[in-house]
Amino acid sequence: MSRRRGRQGGEDRPDPGDPDDPDSPHNRHERHTAPLARYGWLARWAAEAPARWLGRRSSVGQDLTGGADGLSYLRHLARGNRVQRQLSFEHASPDAPVVLLIHGFLGTRGSMYLLERRLVEDGFVVVSFNIGPLNTRDIRRSAFLIHRKIERILAESRGQKIDIIGHSMGGLIGLYYVKKLGGHLRVRKLVMMGTPVRGTWIAMAGIATLGLLSTSSWQLLPRSRFLDELAQGPLPQGVEISTIAAARDWVVPLATTRLPGASTVTVPLGHSSLVVSEDVYRRLAAILRPAGGEPRAEAPADPAGPAADQGQADDDDDGPDHSG
């Protein structure tokens, strides 16, 4: 260490430029900036996350649209599981079967309100079920409940097939029914919207808040035993399976929605937008309609929507609720 003699007396003082002096300006600066350098990778990782998860097609406009759709989704989710009952299947036909809506994890029938209203106004016959508060139970159990109620629908409508639209985890319920419970004999088309076929780490939030109260939270984790079981075996013949995925989906990233053998549509929106966006609806309707693509005869629309029923909401053993 180099030293210099002070102005008064013979006192030796460290050279301010000495690299071995812990109190030199250089070393003090290093001590203050070292933590920033050490954790700088974290800041870079966070800054690059949108491009890494969502791709280069992201834009501020899409973010704003996704935010507005998310607020709309939450507002309708608050409608809960109360629906208006209209027991009419007169508009159903082999080429235009009943459409079953299955909402996602922590969702309600109300969360599918805008999608249901558009389908009804477009002449589709739409049904939905109460599959428990916020849809947090075992996915297998929900699929079995759907199996029983679909049999009731087909008996009442005198139909042979049904179409299923599942949002998020609702798509897994539909897929399990089709692959594991003989649903391929009852389903004409299965459309999975933002469905975590390969799991999603956002399920950790459900585990943190609900823990053992929600079996499905654990089933939604990547490489869960349930998802490994569901992935076994090819897709059954006779069912048209489609996925509609959102490129800006933070809940279910695009890569986790891929299902080999299914046709895929990707939109530059977010998770909630899949059941809110009118553009997504047009793509969905094109999948459901017969090959001719002509609109069906218009069925009476439900002006009040799923929240209109003032009676008691169905429990798991009641029959289906119908709109349209």
Q: Report strand order across the widest sheet.
A: 8-7-6-5-3-4-9
Please name the CATH topology of the largest domain.
Rossmann fold
The total tally of domains equals: 2
> What's the number of helices?
10
By secondary-structure content and strand pairing, the structural class works out as alpha/beta
Q: What does this 3D model show about the protein?
A:
By secondary structure, the chain is of the alpha/beta class. 36% of the residues lie in helices and 13% in strands. It contains ten helices and nine strands. The chain has helices at residues 25-38, 40-54, 60-77, 113-121, 139-157, 169-180, 203-210, 215-219, 225-231, 278-288, and strands spanning 3-5, 12-14, 99-102, 126-128, 162-167, 187-193, 240-246, 263-267, 321-323. A seven-stranded mixed β-sheet has the order 8-7-6-5-3-4-9, with helices on both faces. A two-stranded antiparallel ribbon has the order 1-2. The protein is elongated.
Layout of helices and strands:
Layout: E1 3-5, E2 12-14, H1 25-38, H2 40-54, H3 60-77, E3 99-102, H4 113-121, E4 126-128, H5 139-157, E5 162-167, H6 169-180, E6 187-193, H7 203-210, H8 215-219, H9 225-231, E7 240-246, E8 263-267, H10 278-288, E9 321-323
Parallel strand pairs: 3-4, 3-5, 5-6, 6-7, 7-8
Antiparallel strand pairs: 1-2, 4-9
